[in-house]
Specification:
The longest helix is centred in the N-terminal third of the chain and has 16 residues. The termini are far apart. This protein has two helices and two strands; from the N terminus they run H-H-E-E. Helices cover 38% and strands 11% of the residues. With 71 residues, it is α+β, with helices and mostly antiparallel strands. A two-stranded antiparallel sheet has the order 1-2.
Length: 71
């Protein structure tokens, strides 16, 4: 179900965020769209092999830094 998929996505990201180093997450667009929706990030129209940089906020009340990287 969609709820199970969303839970798997969030569980994976939460595990990655426990690592105190930079993490590379590679996924399909559907995973990124789901994550963007759950995290209330802006919707980015991605093409194949696009790279997006994310930095969690140091303060939970601040937004994430999100930017597309140049090829």
């Amino acid at each position: 179900s969609i709820m199970e998929f969303e839970k798997r996505v969030m569980d994976g990201v939460n595990e990655a965020l426990k690592i105190n180093e930079n993490v590379l997450i590679v996924s399909h667009g559907g995973v990124y769209a789901c994550l963007s929706r759950l995290m209330k990030w802006p919707i980015i129209n991605l093409k194949n092999c696009e790279t997006i940089f994310h930095r969690p906020p140091s303060n939970p009340s601040h937004p994430w830094l999100i930017c597309q990287l140049q090829k």
